[in-house]
């Protein structure tokens, strides 16, 4: 399938700073991709280049086959900043009608766009009375004008409560299901774990990891933690039977390499009645993220 976004060998140097170094990636139609990285990793720089706001130093970027910033690319790409700001005295509907007019579209489309993002009931209220989550949804409604094929979202859910986040991601899911490609940056690791198809980790301007969470888990090969609940005070005996295990109260804690996991599970099963329960905890996205980000000494 043709990619919506293609980046190859992208490098961006500012005076004395290499913000992006030889980054290559693609985003396919309908794909939801999360861009993770510490402050200064290069996320905003990459977004600015995709939007055509600043030029690349080296490398190639194509948005729906067109050069970033060209009229063809601008028609296909939409951007939502972290803190979308609107005129507080305008109603949601007035604001959207204004944007539609600027884009040369029929302002009557404002109501349908506001319905789409769940703001139908608040369309005639002034934006100054909206919550942050509602303002972000106005921003998304504005981004949807013209049916963009690529949505670039800079920390779109930062500062939103859990319900607003869930609603926001549900909207993104629906847009992706219709074929829009989504590239979003976030610091909320656990939420992107559940709500995106692929994760990219930037560290010091380099793309240090890319793949589904399962791919990243496998290649990071981080240890697996296990918590064994002992029956009838057998915790010390269980710990003695499992290398590196520590007993604490009625629980036994241990970690092992991925490659040893099945062997350890076999040993635990062999303890029979002494074991009341077992919890296996795979490395979290935070663990994986720190693992890759640390590689560049950040
Ligand atoms: N206009 C500029 N001039 C000089 N250096 C810049 C400029 N813009 C960004 N940088 C540098 O490029 C690097 C990447 O910055 P960038 O803003 O892309 O990071 P980021 O991952 O978006 O961080 P954050 O999460 O804080 O937004 C940083 O070292 C930053 O200081």
From TrEMBL:
Domain called ABC transporter: residue spans: 5-229
Coiled coil, from the record: none
A Pfam cross-reference name: ABC_tran
Domain of life assignment: Bacteria
SUPFAM superfamilies attached to this UniProt entry: P-loop containing nucleoside triphosphate hydrolases
MF annotations from Gene Ontology: ATP binding
UniProtKB keywords: ATP-binding, Nucleotide-binding, Transport
PANTHER family hit by this protein: ABC TRANSPORTER, ATP-BINDING PROTEIN
UniProt similarity note: Belongs to the ABC transporter superfamily.
Protein name listed in UniProt: ABC transporter ATP-binding protein
Native source organism of the sequence: Albidovulum sediminis
């Amino acid at each position: 399938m043709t990619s919506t976004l293609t980046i190859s060998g992208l490098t961006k140097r500012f005076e004395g700073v290499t913000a992006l170094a030889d980054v290559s990636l693609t985003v396919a139609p309908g794909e939801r991709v999360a861009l993770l990285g510490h402050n200064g990793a290069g996320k905003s720089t990459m977004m600015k280049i995709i939007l055509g706001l600043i030029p690349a130093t080296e490398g190639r970027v194509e948005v729906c086959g067109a050069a970033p910033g060209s009229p063809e690319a601008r028609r296909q790409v939409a951007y939502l900043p972290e803190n979308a700001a609107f005129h507080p005295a305008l109603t949601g509907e007035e604001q959207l009608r204004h944007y539609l007019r600027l884009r040369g579209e029929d302002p009557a489309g404002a109501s349908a766009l506001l319905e789409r993002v769940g703001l139908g009931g608040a369309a005639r209220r002034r934006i100054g009375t909206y919550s942050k989550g509602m303002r972000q949804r106005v921003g998304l409604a504005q981004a949807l004008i013209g049916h963009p094929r690529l949505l670039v979202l800079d920390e779109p859910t930062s500062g939103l409560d859990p319900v607003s986040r869930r609603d926001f991601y549900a909207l993104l899911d629906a847009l992706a299901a219709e074929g829009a490609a989504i590239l979003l940056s976030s610091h909320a690791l656990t939420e992107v774990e559940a709500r995106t198809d692929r994760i990219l980790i930037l560290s010091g301007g380099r793309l240090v990891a890319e793949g589904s969470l399962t791919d990243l888990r496998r290649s990071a090969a981080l240890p697996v933690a296990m918590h064994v609940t002992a029956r009838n005070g057998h915790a010390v005996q269980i710990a003695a039977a499992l290398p590196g295990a520590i007993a604490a109260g009625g629980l036994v804690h241990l970690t092992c390499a991925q490659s040893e996991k099945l062997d350890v599970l076999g040993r635990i099963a062999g303890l029979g009645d002494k074991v009341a329960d077992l919890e296996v905890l795979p490395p979290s996205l935070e663990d994986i993220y720190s693992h890759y980000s640390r590689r560049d000494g950040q």
